[in-house]
Inverse folding.
């Protein structure tokens, strides 16, 4: 591998384009070698101004290229499985945007393929783990200075949803982050999911029931709830309040500047996830590049992708049935322990 990690970004949509700019302008030790998109014009537009990068329309061409040391997958989730298997065969570092794959069975195939390879090659794009306050809350749970963590209350609000955002995507695309965050904070697996549908906004597209209240339990009995509200109009907000035996911790609340003027007080709400988690994305991708240079990846693993896929499946069933649905996982391969 060359000292500079030459990355092929597969998928030049909203997230892929953001990562291309990040890799080009802010990440050290890596450069964009190729951009793959079935839309050739979009691939070409994405490499504009990036010397040495090529635009391709087929992921296989990037995987076959000797100029590519690593891949970053930012296609829609249903395309991840095949690309992941081929990249594992080439035995190169992979950053795969969430979800790992859209269902637990196909995610399990990826876990098995990586376990067979015998080293971690996949990092899943759960970027909230790289947000400074998320890391601080996890450290507070692990450190025990506030006693045991008892409950987590999550607010996950988006201004609106892109075309084609289905009712199931409130779980699969949005709450998937809280499934991972809860596992990250508690260092435990999730054992059950329940979804309650109450009064809905008239501002949601047809087919979406919004907001939804998701109730989650972990192995030791920590209860978590998520308000997922994806057509909240006012802006983008992801916040958590954690109840401990001797204290309450809030993260993700508004940050400055806090301005008083003309008889009013206030500040700005971030408009979208790129702004809210911009620093976390930078830290995430830099950590991936640094780890890839050393050989073995850390960060959210294929196991985390599989476990959250199982939570999502339970969540969608819970959404449909109104029942509390158990989450069951296959035994964890030793690679991930
Ligand atoms: C989107 O795909 C994300 O990953 C965002 O972080 C999340 O807030 C949003 O709900 C998802 O659609």
């Amino acid at each position: 591998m060359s000292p500079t990690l030459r990355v092929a970004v597969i998928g030049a949509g909203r997230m892929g384009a953001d990562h291309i700019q990040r890799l080009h302008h802010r990440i050290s030790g890596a450069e964009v070698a190729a951009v793959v998109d079935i839309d050739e014009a979009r691939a070409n537009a994405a490499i504009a101004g990036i010397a040495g990068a090529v635009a391709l329309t087929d992921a296989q061409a990037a995987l076959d290229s000797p100029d590519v040391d690593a891949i970053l997958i930012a296609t829609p989730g249903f395309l991840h499985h095949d690309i992941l298997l081929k990249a594992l065969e080439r035995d190169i570092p992979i950053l795969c945007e969430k979800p790992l794959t859209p269902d637990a069975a196909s995610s399990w195939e990826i876990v098995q393929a990586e376990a067979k390879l015998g080293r971690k090659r996949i990092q899943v794009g759960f970027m909230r783990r790289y947000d400074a306050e998320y890391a601080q809350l996890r450290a507070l749970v692990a450190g025990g200075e506030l006693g045991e963590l008892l409950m987590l209350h999550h607010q996950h609000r988006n201004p609106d949803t892109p075309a084609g955002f289905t009712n199931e995507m409130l779980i699969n695309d949005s709450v998937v982050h809280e499934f991972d965050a809860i596992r990250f904070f508690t260092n435990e697996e999730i054992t059950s999911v329940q979804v309650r549908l109450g009064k809905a906004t008239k501002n949601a597209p047809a087919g979406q029931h919004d907001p939804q209240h998701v109730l989650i339990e972990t192995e030791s009995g920590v209860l978590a709830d998520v308000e997922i509200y994806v057509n909240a109009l006012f802006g983008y907000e992801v916040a958590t309040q954690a109840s401990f035996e001797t204290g309450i911790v809030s993260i993700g609340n508004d940050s400055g500047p806090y301005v008083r003027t003309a008889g009013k007080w206030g500040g700005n709400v971030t408009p979208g996830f790129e702004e809210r988690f911009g620093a976390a994305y930078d830290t995430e991708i830099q950590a991936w590049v640094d780890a890839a240079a050393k050989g073995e990846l850390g960060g959210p693993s294929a196991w985390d992708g599989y476990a959250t896929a199982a939570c999502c499946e339970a969540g969608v069933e819970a959404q449909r049935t109104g029942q509390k649905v158990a989450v069951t996982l296959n035994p964890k391969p030793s690679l991930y322990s």
Q: What stands out?
A: The two ends are 28 Å apart (CA to CA). The longest strand covers residues 149-157. The first helix runs from residue 14 to 25. Residues 158, 173-174, 177, 230, 273 surround ISE (CB under 6 Å).
